[in-house]
Amino acid sequence: MKIIDTHCDALLKLQLAKRGSFFQQEPLNFTDSEALDTNFQRLHAGGVKVQFFAIFLYPDVPSDEKWQHALEQVDLFYTEVLGKNPAMKHIKKWEDIDRLKDNEIGAVLTLEGADAFGNDLMKLRQLYRLGVLSIGLTWNNANLCADGAGEPRGGGLTLLGKEVVRLNNEHRVFTDVSHLSVKGFWDVMELADYPMASHSNARALRNHPRNLDDDQAKAMFAKNGLIDVVFCLDFIKEDTSKVTIPDLIKHIDHFCGLGGVQNIGIGSDFDGIGAYIEDLENASKFQNLVNELQKRYSEEEVAGFAYRNFLEHRPGIQALRGIDNGRTSEKQSEVGIWQKR
């Protein structure tokens, strides 16, 4: 079964390795490096059809270097991910997903934290032009747009942050809530046309500030937002000495119980985690998750979690597919790569 994964940190690993090469370390090869959970060979083996690649900067990167660090990761996306792997195709607009051929994997560029552009909206517009299709306003720290989930102050969106959400709406770009403070989350719910939690789990099962509580989850579902479950062990259960695929599925079960069966997806956080769910250690193992889900859910529901819910909640999907009064246009029926096979 095909997979859409809405979060990985391969670009950061590629950047750190390239910078480390100045100290006699070898840069990583995206095609087959064992150090990358989401290298091309593993994506192909795991049935991944679309992989999201985050631009992420550590908070200790000096302010005057953040834009350069972000551009380095964008450059690696173009040169290493796309440039050396012809089957990787850049998804520059949501319609491009429907044009992928059977042997191709879509690559989506995202931004995890607005630190990269500071208060310079010209830089933000440049990121849109470079193909960024999802923007999380924060990582765990605070910045000029909002407070993150780890910021003790717990503030919401600033005026700048609200303007970024407005621009995301205008450009049909997701606003990612996964790392926001609780107040920031609710500010986004008031403003965003396209909310998504790219990698978060259920706080009712694991009381962690990076997870969403039931009221937040219900608000996401009410706005047709996506919640993509994450493989980080500490977001799944308190005892991380052994975490299994059924432990992760409990979070899917919980969200389904809140009415979100059509709003759940996958946001692995591969290459951003250092410990793994048993039998789900890298992108080549995705079908192990699919197989376990099929023991509990219908084929249609599992396909929803794996890829279809995302396709149905892409920004502007009604305009793209011509859905009218519950009827599907001929254009939609022509999209063949997503059929069960």
TrEMBL record:
Q: Does the keyword Protease apply?
A: yes
Keywords (alphabetical) are: Dipeptidase, Hydrolase, Protease
Give the matching SUPFAM superfamilies. Metallo-dependent hydrolases (SSF51556)
Q: What is its EC number?
A: 3.4.13.19
Q: Which InterPro entries match?
A: Metal_Hydrolase, Pept_M19
Gene Ontology molecular function = dipeptidase activity
PANTHER family registered for this protein in UniProt: DIPEPTIDASE (PTHR10443:SF12), MICROSOMAL DIPEPTIDASE (PTHR10443)
Q: What is this protein called?
A: Dipeptidase
Q: Which organism is it from?
A: Planococcus shenhongbingii
